[in-house]
UniProtKB/TrEMBL annotation:
This is Intercellular adhesion molecule 5. Residues 706-727 are annotated as: Disordered. Residues 283-361, 366-442, 447-535, 540-613, 620-706 form the Ig-like domain. One of its GO terms (biological process) is cell-cell adhesion. It is found in: Membrane. InterPro entries: ICAM, ICAM1_3_5_D2, ICAM_VCAM, ICAM_VCAM_N, Ig-like_dom, Ig-like_dom_sf, Ig-like_fold, Ig_sub. The keyword Transmembrane helix applies. One of its GO terms (cellular component) is plasma membrane. It is a single-pass type I membrane protein. Its main location: membrane. Keywords: Cell adhesion, Disulfide bond, Glycoprotein, Immunoglobulin domain, Membrane, Repeat, Signal, Transmembrane, Transmembrane helix. GO terms for molecular function: integrin binding. SMART domains: IG (SM00409), IGc2 (SM00408).
Length: 738
């Protein structure tokens, strides 16, 4: 049997499959299908072999997912047990359409009042639809069918349309909505009142009038409407309202308002109309539109505006009274200081003109230049001065100066003192910014001497290369000159050290003269004089003239030390030592005192040393006078006399021989006397004498020449005797000294 056109969701429907004439029935199987899925399957086995045809029926519950599903029937005849095959046949598919419709009526959204000729949106909504896309909507205003736009959101439907009422529909009518799905419909309706309410009519006797003329304003509306003109109501509905006025400049562009009200179905409706009056009048330059004073910051671009009231619109021209610069009104441009000044603005139209003087002030941040606020300022000690820095800027800046490292602002007149010198920071401030500058204050003053920097007594040490330092306090730096007066050569200048000594500072050219010098310090603010006493001293100095390097002493004399003195001021103390030992106050000179000595000279300015060599001289002494051979001499024999003397400086040796003794030989230094072939005349007394600068010393010896058996007889002398030995010729010697 065929499927229903629409089947409600949740209700059963019957599926029936007929297989007529198929047999034997016992070999037949029938299956009901949803798409490819089996719903019911039945085999007819056990039926009579002669039975033919079959019917399969089933009740199925309709579901949402069955919407659009295909249902079919399949028949299978299995004759394979009879030696034949399996035969199969399938019915044409049938599509099922299911639906669900909410029992609630649709919801209408529409105005309660609808004006003739006006458009108003209306809508009809219903939830719980399936399938919502298959639903049909009917929406009508009275007999006028509307054509809505359908909006689907899941199982919800919304039909929206625009309703326009006509004059024929004026009065009470209905807005109806019907939604149909499957075999069912849902309906609803709303009452709507259609009304007619034309806009009020607002008229002027003339839209544009010259100043001073009379104008009539009229406000009117429909027969049932009550009008109000600028708050003044009509006497009764349907009557107009009028207003008369003498037009002034203040009425130009004045708006008039006409209000109309109408009561419809218990609701009061209103409509408004407005119009504008134009009044022709001469220009006016009001302060609100063209201020007398303009103030602009320098730099940013601005639009200068000077607007005049007037009808027709006036043209405005602003220029300097002297015919100079013209302001570019209404144009964007940079603001510069050159624009500042007074301008005459003229506004003109066909009704007349107006004139006004305006002042343009250009404000800018402070600036401190070298003219109004110099970087360096010089004050004179003892005068009165003020630290005044003038800054350029608009509005006029305030300037304050503070000393570096201090917090107190310097203000007012100052009695200038040296402590006011220093560095100050001056800052200028106005509403546009600030500027700062460093100012150096120099306080100048006349010269003055201080004992520490220019002493009254100065000692110059020879060889030091120092210059006299006479530093004078004063600004600018005073020039100082010291000139000799008493005790020195007149007008001799004392060389002075420069104020700022350096490694290249000049050294003193010559020894300054001792005495009194007059020092004069001068600068542009005055001069001062001071007397300086100069004394010249020197460190110790020993040379050959004051401390000979070689000195001689005499043995036996009394000595207080080497003869050494030193030059120097003050007079140096000189002391000498030998091998580190101190020198005794007085010595009796002996030969052991000879040697090397170190002499040291000392005073307040240093020391000097000198090494000297001391030699000790002494008188001669004949230390030895001897004969050789020592035993004596025979005639014809040889003998030698040797004389050795001790002396310093070395002694000169001289001999005195007996008279008549000839052929006597002497050595080169006379220390040896020799005789070859002694004769009797060689016998006698011989004297050896040693002589130097300090004296003479001698000794004598007696020589006797004897032969045979003569016995030798020795003469007797104060020094001693010599005896002649027994046997042969002998000589005896007797020594004496003198």
């Amino acid at each position: 049997m065929p499927l229903p056109a629409w089947q409600p969701v949740g209700e059963n429907f019957t599926l029936s499959c007929r297989v007529p004439g198929a047999g034997p029935r016992g070999s037949l199987t029938v299956t009901l299908l949803r798409g490819a899925r089996e719903l019911v399957r039945r085999s007819f086995s056990g039926e009579s072999p002669r039975a033919r045809g079959a019917v399969l029926t089933a009740a199925v519950l309709a579901r949402r997912e069955d919407h659009g599903a295909n249902f079919s029937c399949r028949a299978e005849l299995d004759l394979r047990p009879h030696g034949l095959g399996l035969f199969e046949n399938r019915s044409a598919p049938r599509m099922l359409r299911t639906f669900a419709l909410s029992p609630e009526p649709p919801r209408l959204a529409a105005p309660r009042l609808l004006e003739v000729g006006s458009e108003s949106p209306v809508s009809c909504s219903l939830d719980g639809l399936f399938p919502a896309s298959e639903a049909r909507v009917y929406l009508a205003l009275g007999a006028q069918r509307l054509h809505p736009d359908i909006i689907l959101e899941g199982d919800a439907l919304r039909a929206a349309a625009t309703a326009t009422a006509s004059a024929e529909q004026e009065g009470a009518t209905q807005l109806a909505c019907s939604v149909t799905l499957g075999r069912e419909s849902r309906e609803t309706w709303e009452n709507v009142t259609v009304y007619s309410f034309p806009a009020p009519l607002l008229t002027l006797s003339a839209p544009s009038v010259p100043e001073g003329e009379t104008v009539t304003v009229t406000c009117a509306a429909g027969a049932q409407a009550l009008v109000t003109l600028d708050g003044v109501p009509a006497a009764a509905p349907g009557q107009p309202v009028q207003l008369q006025l003498n037009a002034t400049a203040n009425d130009d562009r004045r708006s008039f308002f006409c209000d109309a009200t109408l009561e419809v179905d218990g609701e009061v409706l209103s409509k408004k109309e407005s119009t504008e009056l134009r009044v022709l009048y001469a220009p006016r330059l009001d302060d609100s539109d063209c201020p007398r004073s303009w103030t602009w910051p320098e730099g940013p671009e601005q639009t200068l505006r000077c607007e005049a009231r007037g009808n027709p619109a006036p043209s405005v021209h602003c220029a300097r009274p002297d015919g100079g610069a013209v302001l570019a009104l209404g144009l964007l441009g940079p603001i510069t200081r050159a624009l500042a000044g007074t301008y005459r603005c003229t506004a003109a139209n066909v009704q007349g003109e107006a004139v006004k003087d305006v002042t343009l002030t250009v404000e800018y941040a402070p600036a401190l230049d070298s003219v109004s606020c110099p970087e360096r300022i010089t004050w004179l000690e003892g005068t009165e001065a003020s630290l005044s820095c003038v800054a350029h800027g608009v509005p006029p800046p305030t300037v304050s100066c503070v000393r570096s490292g201090a917090a107190e602002v310097i203000e007012g007149l100052l009695h200038v003192a040296r402590e006011h010198a220093g560095t100050y920071r001056c800052e200028a401030t106005n509403s546009r910014g600030s500027a700062a500058k460093t100012v150096a204050i120099t306080v100048e003053y006349g010269p003055s001497f201080e004992e520490l920097s220019c002493p009254s007594n100065w000692t110059w040490v020879e060889g030091s290369g120092r210059l006299f330092s006479c530093e004078v306090d004063g600004k600018p730096q005073p020039r100082v000159e010291c000139v000799g007066s008493r005790g020195t050569t007149e007008r001799v200048l004392l060389p002075l050290a420069p104020p700022d000594p350096s490694p290249r500072a000049p050294s003193i050219p010559s020894e300054p003269a001792s005495g009194i010098y007059t020092c004069n310090a001068t600068n542009q603010h005055g001069s001062m004089v001071k007397m300086v006493a100069v004394s010249v001293e020197s460190p110790p100095k020993m040379d050959e003239s004051t401390c000979p390097s070689h000195q001689t002493w005499l043995e036996g004399a009394e000595a207080v030390g080497p003869a050494c003195a030193a030059l120097g001021r003050p007079s140096p103390q000189v002391s000498c030592s030998r091998e580190g030992g101190p020198w005794p106050q007085r010595i009796h000179v002996s030969r052991q005192d000879a040697g090397t000595y170190l002499c040291l000279a000392t005073n307040a300015h240093g020391t000097d040393t000198r090494t000297i060599t001391v030699g000790v001289e002494y008188r001669p002494v004949v230390a030895e006078l001897a004969a050789s051979p020592p035993g004596g001499v025979r005639p014809g024999g040889n003998f030698t006399l040797t004389c050795r003397a001790e002396a310093w400086p070395p002694a000169q040796i001289s001999w005195r021989a007996p008279p008549g003794a000839l052929n006597i030989g002497l050595s080169s230094n006379n220390s040896t006397l020799s005789v070859a072939g002694a004769l009797g005349s060689h016998g006698g007394e011989y004297e050896c004498a040693a002589t130097n600068a300090h004296g003479r010393h001698s000794r004598r010896i007696t020589v006797r020449v004897t032969g045979g058996n003569d016995s030798a007889q020795g003469g007797t002398e104060p020094d001693g005797t010599a005896e002649t030995p027994a046997g042969g010729e002998v000589f005896s010697i007797q020594l004496t000294s003198a």
